[in-house]
């Protein structure tokens, strides 16, 4: 065999799998499709990990118990989640940080003004790029064999048992394999196929921007589903999709392209009409629904509108938006119908009811007599200058994936493979049927990456597969 455990992928889940497998003493080879300077997949664009904790812990304030985490996840997915696997991820999130630190990951203290986020999420010092670099350094020191620019286009599988992988015409054999090669969000044709044509004759996917890596083409995912008939699940149109700045680059714009002032004003579509409650819940719990909402609007574009009262209350956008002293002038800059736009804002302003504004809580500033309503943080847009930011759907990762269980095994006709495992985006749909809440992607990738790595090594060593979260102790 060329190696004992072959890990296909180069992001957080793949690296967790490689590190855990290597800690058992087996040989490990990792194949990353990207060149070294673009390694890490979407993980390089992340910045935090959602963590359960029953009391304050180092960088985490207050408490975020299992049931609250579960209810947050249940709410954003609309119940479209496997509760057993979801709770397994939640529990694993409470114990993984010591192991992460041993592999060089550093966490930063809570930032001023972000304490409500620091209650639920642990932020990486240096962001996702630092996380990825730390894991690669640790993997190299432990002797993981790493190959860059090594995409895998097909696998040899017999009766559900992995035999070999093919990369750039070379056959690579291993006793066990972990699939962690990401979703298909960078494959424009597959996105087009999934979303199809809408009733307006548009192809929505043509206007999508990819927030992350250009290397997640979904080649291996499609190969597993179509050629090997692996058990799969998920809606191909469901994804972690965020409303991002329309000026963002096609790929790798990352976290900084997000527009974070949505809850502080109103959002209108190309026809200058509001279409959803901007103040439904805290932004970290709702930001990921807005990409899909924008994708459903004419031309797949929308505009976030605020006035000067909102300035300083959110992370300023990277790209300069429109700025005007009057609503009429702002509409002109955004190429919106002036009459329709000013009427929309007038009706919204008239519907705002007095309350005590506090953006750190679910306050009592709301609207009455208008559809859609705004549940919280509803203040009239009446203090110039006014600002407008164009929004496009930004796809982070797709949810169509391989069905698995608490051993992270790939399944064929309901039967778990004895030596083929899956982690990260390729199986996130087991937990995320739809929706998203900040940091949970890293929680899923970390939990299942570690389980997959341990069980791939166990299959090599002849040990039974472990179910559920692994110990945070070095094996």
From TrEMBL:
Alphabetical keyword list: FAD, Flavoprotein, Oxidoreductase
Cited SUPFAM superfamilies: FAD/NAD(P)-binding domain (SSF51905), Succinate dehydrogenase/fumarate reductase flavoprotein, catalytic domain (SSF56425)
Pfam families: FAD_binding_2 (PF00890)
Transmembrane segments: none
Highest taxon in the source lineage: Bacteria
A molecular-function term among this protein's GO annotations: oxidoreductase activity
Domain FAD-dependent oxidoreductase 2 FAD-binding: 4-433
Cofactor requirement: FAD
Record carries keyword Protease: no
Protein name: FAD-dependent tricarballylate dehydrogenase TcuA
Gene name for this UniProt entry: tcuA
